[in-house]
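ASSEMBLY PREDICTION REQUEST
Request ID: AP-0331
Submitted by: J.K., bench scientist
Number of chains: two
Total residues: 556
Priority: normal
Notes: Please return the full assembly, not individual chains.
Input sequences:
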Amino acid sequence: MITSRAERTLNYAVALLFVVLSIAPLAGVLLAALHPPGALLSGISLPETLSLETFAAAWERGSFTTLMTSSLIVSGAVVLLTTLTSIPAGYAFGVIRFPFSNVLFYVLIAGIIIPFEAVIVPLYYSFRALGLTNTYWALILPQAGLQVCFGTFWMRAFFRAAPLELIEAARIDGATTWQVLWRVLVPIARPAVFTLIVLVFTWSWNDFLLALVMISDEGHRTAPLGLSVFKSRYGLDVPQVSAAAILVALPILILYVIAQRQFIRGVLSGSIKA
Amino acid sequence: MGFLYILPAFALYGLFVLLPALDGAWISLFDWDGVTLAHWVGLGNYADALADGLVQQAFFHAFVLIVFYALAPVCLGLLVTAALSRHPIRGLTAVRTIVFLPQVLAAVVIGVAWQWMYDPQGPVNAALSALGLDGFTRAWLGDFGVALPAVGIIGTWVTTGLCAVLFIAGVQQIPMDRYDAARVDGAGAVREFFAVTLPGLRNEIVVALLLTVVAALRVFDVIFVTTKGGPGTETYVPTLLIYKRAFVSGEVGSAAAIATILTGLVLLVSVGIRRLEEPADT
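STATUS: Completed
Returned structure:
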């Protein structure tokens, strides 16, 4: 392709501008968090000494050991439940023919669009009636119920594209439908399952509304809810609130660095096919 | 046979999403404070909601946010795509990774980051002062008239990366010969964009609109963390109203009615946007 030098420069400048704008707010909190706790910041100021003491202070004051443990328990359980139920469901919709499968699939897909903000009201009162508020179940079960829609959709897309010869060959060898799934298809589906795990973990980790409504007990707070409480308590201490925000984001940031390809591919193909 | 395989997934979805959604529609027919006995009011909550100035305002704000969450990001995303698809760009993967980053962060974290950006002492005002624009500095999130667009810009920041990444992937699917043909005809960068790139991205634009418009109608976390609806009721949105009525002021029936209206609106808008898609196999 022939493009002029001036145009190339302009294109690189546009790209650079977007990168800078994308990073600026995050650079802002990081810079703020590197200041000592309680420091009064003004504008874009560089810390005089580099230290992580603000992170340590925020971890201590925000009881981050408890927050991180809760979030890990909840997100881990949601990933396990969602993956284990989405794989067979996606397999059924993608490979097995059965009556009403189309209608049922559309009913399930509706869950991707239904605003969860609307489901939360009746959900809270049902869970309260059952005495389940302030438990991890109040976060795990509804999240899994929601994520299983995307999970099934995602696994179905993979199984539909799986080579039929493989399934038929296994059938001739006498494998049952169940064995075909776990011995033949799941092993080749590993990358798809990994992407699903990464996405479900992230969405679950980032959930805020459900925790805000269901959890009032300090011991069960998740990291985003803890951050919101921390912010309303120490809001004026910009360095500490910033450090707390970074602590909440850190596990996902690490995951993103490791699996950014899966993240982007998952969100893109998930949304295009939906 | 297939039923057994989908049973666990449907049990989770049915019990914790579908049934509550129907239950919500049922609750919306009662006057209920969440504690004492509920009274049947039929569609009374809906009539009240439609006549309620605050409800109207909240839905109006949601529509304003569509400009910031959907229209602006789609335009900006197209601009980046136009710049990045004319010739091979060094570091394209890195650019993609960075602009997509806001997508994976918790909305609470984003709220904290932007509240500092918008702080009277924060980076935005500092940058304006540095450019000699002291007259424009203000407490962005506390300013009547400016708070809603300020919250909207947070949305633009979040969703632009998603649109850009969608479009950049889409451009790679456009057959090269269309570009070659345009160039043979002597099309410049601008005409090439409107003649080839834009029509070629039709389906990606539809998907981007679908995702971002729904995101605008559903926004909650960022508003709850930054403005809580203020100043006054300047940044009230439907989800915030649902939350406040259901869990703060004990108007559960009213909250359920607003929630049902919102669900209907989201489903309607999703179906409507889908219609814009190119029919398959053309």
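REVIEWER COMMENTS: The mean pLDDT of chain A is 91.
SIGN-OFF: pending second reviewer
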